[in-house]
Protein 1
Amino acid sequence: MRRVLAGAAVAAVALIVPLVGPAGALPILAQPDAEELAADLEEAAEVQGICYGWRVRVNDSDRILSGEDVGSSRGVGLPAQDVSCPRWMVFEAILTYTSASSESEDSATFRVWSNVPGAPLEANLRRVGVDSAALLGENDDVAVINATLALPALAAELRLAPPLPLDRNTEGIPEVDRPTGTPGSDWLRTYGVYLALSGVLVVGGLVWAGWAWVAGRRESGTGEGDNGEGGDSTDDSADADGDDE
Amino acid sequence: MSTRAQVVLGLALAGIGAVALAILLATTGNGSVREHVGDRYRLVATQDGGRSREYASAEPPSQVVDSIAARWKPADRINDSAGYFLRYRDDYVVVSSDGAGGSRIFVDDEEEGYRHWYGFVGGSWGTFSSPSEANRGRGPGAGK
């Protein structure tokens, strides 16, 4: 009976584990998001004459390729590099996820892969908020979208292509629509770490000084008792009395 | 270490912390991203009684957005092929190219910002129900 139960448990785990899905499960972009990103890139490609795309490789802990998420202004699943694209620019990232038992940590590297001379570099991407932590985080899809959509803006900045117009909405918006999830204090978000460090120094320093002062007082009090010797002998006699009782 | 030395060291640490705290509050306590942009960049236009302002800079957009985000950390950000959007508690900051190597910087309060940049942030930073393709943003499908 035990064997049957154990077998059932193993089977249940085997069924559940694939459903949970590990971090970095592919595809990183859900189909609607990938299609929207491809459409945005297509608009940019038409204005700028550069095909844009993304290519995210996910490796397991042995650095063996688990899969790829690819797309471009040509469509989801299609690479930007094509005979129809004399100039192309791709956000490429390699995400390596290690197992929970592994000593090494998850890692991410990224770059701009392009045949356009003077194309943006990793440093350009970092300036616009692209970083490894975001690519390895919960919202890795948003990180990939942000990195890929920065390419046309960076290409314009580097004078490789004309900028895309930033059109402000001058009309009203549906009455039901409004901003949600208003963020917390900007000051705390920006300076909270410094505030906490300063607080730790103040409180820690005072606690240390107070503790040292009290300990010193006790020590000097004990020292006075040692000199008189009366206190200790009284305690001893009290203990002796207690034992006798 | 003697008791007196420990007391002095503890008080010194507390003093350093207090001075650091005072400097932090004195130099940053009353600031905001809106003030920072206003102090640092050239004002070009004002709308809606100052709720929306446009600034200009000779620096390229990526440098401007990096500088602003480093000084005041945004709660959220959206990169778009036309520019960069930073979200703060009360303000939206948008940086785009001016077409000549420099930048245009827009600062809007939350309500005006959501209306002005509805096509870009709608569905990500608030609700989005517009059926119009002209107002298409990343939409509610963006993100997981």
Note: Chain B touches chain A through 77 residues (CB under 8 Å).
Protein 2
Amino acid sequence: MEPTDLSMLELGRKLGSGELSSVEAVRACLARVDRLDGRVKAFLRVDREGALAQAELADRRRQEGRRAGPLDGVPVGLKDLFLTEGLPTTAGSRILESFVAPDDGTVVKLLRAAGTPILGKTNMDEFAMGSSTENSAFFPTRNPWNLELSPGGSSGGSAAAVAARMAFGALGTDTGGSIRQPAALTGTVGLKPTYGRVSRLGVVAFASSLDQVGPMTRDVPDCAALLQAIAVHDPGDSTSAPVKAPDYLAEIEAGVKGMKLGLPREYLELPGMDPEVRAAVEAATLALEKMGAQLVPVSLPHTRYALATYYLIAPAEASSNLARYDGVRYGLRVDGRNLLAMYGRTRDQGFGLEVKRRIMLGTYALSAGYYDAYYLKAQKVRTLIKQDFVEAFRTVDAVLSPTSPTAAFRIGEKVSDPLAMYLNDVFTLPCNLAGLPGLSLPCGFTRANLPIGLQILGKPWDEARVLRIARAFEREHDFHRRTPPLGAA
Amino acid sequence: MSLTQEEVRHVAGLARLSLSEEEETLMRTQLSAILDAVAELSGVDTSTVEPTSHAAGEVAPWRADEVLPSFPPQKALGNAPAKVGTSFAVPRIIE
């Protein structure tokens, strides 16, 4: 058994007992990166020296009897959207290709305090805009389950690194599904916490009312442990809520007996549902029923408008957030004959096509004469989508659905058709619009041996229950233990 | 909904993007298709619905007005594409 086969918490225990060292764990990850990442391409940058130096410090802390916690010494990957002092942060974009942040973001500081060596920065769709990691300005990441396929996105690099066991866990961000969809497509566990649970300070902004940071791991207890490390109120982010995080591991094994789990009837009627995905998700809900949960049909009638609502609100916010890339204070500058020409040329050469598309769409939706018809209208429909969940949560404890309508798809298959690509997010978007916690975990495999994800949506601040439901399912199945064929190479 | 080339150029100007002619044409087709797809929202009755601008509370919290250390100028200028002394340098805007 290789050290990289261990979960984060298992490794943490072995580090605590001295059976393994953090340096050995980091070396084991780097060896897998050397062996596999030329094909998977999960990492944009690997920080060997930095990770080994942090591991040595973790080992010293243990020898001195002052371990920082259960994850001290456990190496992780970071989506390249998190600012890291001294290590480039590109957001997957040419416009930030040479950007080196002057400070660590809050979650990076929290990880350093938890003692997790940072292996490097993982690939992503540019500015987190995409569902396949093909919109990275540098290269697409490949799915460890089949290298011809996409790992999903936008946190595709983090998902692939975890699935291929090049990292024990990773952080991603989720604006419309960017943690949960790649988790589903790579057979890993990913959680988008309640909006406001995790600080966004030092995370490159995409759509500020939707963005949230979350853990990506191989199993549910790891997901709880990594969430625990980052779910801390941050006065530096005004949307970080002063809500104390409970102990996420305390009741994780308590099961689902007596819980009411909602099945939204509209979700299974959404376009493009793969019958194999539907069957696996239905089987998973029945398995939870067998464990003592009660399945309750619920109605989320405005779900069908979530896609249109999201694709007005997110681009509108993005067009505003990305106005900061002007070639003046940081990032790429392309000179022009005057200031306006410099802005235009910098942004034309610095941004990729999908980013430009969303800036254009957002600018249009916010422009004079169209604001009421598009942006304001979308905000009102957002209220209705949110109310649907408030209504459903009067009778149920959580809502179950597929994470993605299909398993992993071919690289190149959807990239030229933005609307087809956007349909990937049809199940994940409502959660962001409503600010809820949502988790994806593996719940089956297709005949082609590709993972399928089950999504569990909870009430605001109720991550503990979402994790508990996920753990109940995981404990009685072995989907999360299966390894990609690449893993044996 | 079909956008004209002029509308695409106008929006690109607002967004400070100098698009190539090829990009303008592609944007025109793709944005028109996306606007068609999102037009379904116009059929939703929202006459009595308040907008939601944020998933968090709509009221920004207060905090004490404390002086905290900030980056020294050289660090803040560390990523500047061009600088003069302790300032960011930009093309002249007043002739």
Note: The CA atoms of residues 80 and 89 of chain A lie 6 Å apart.
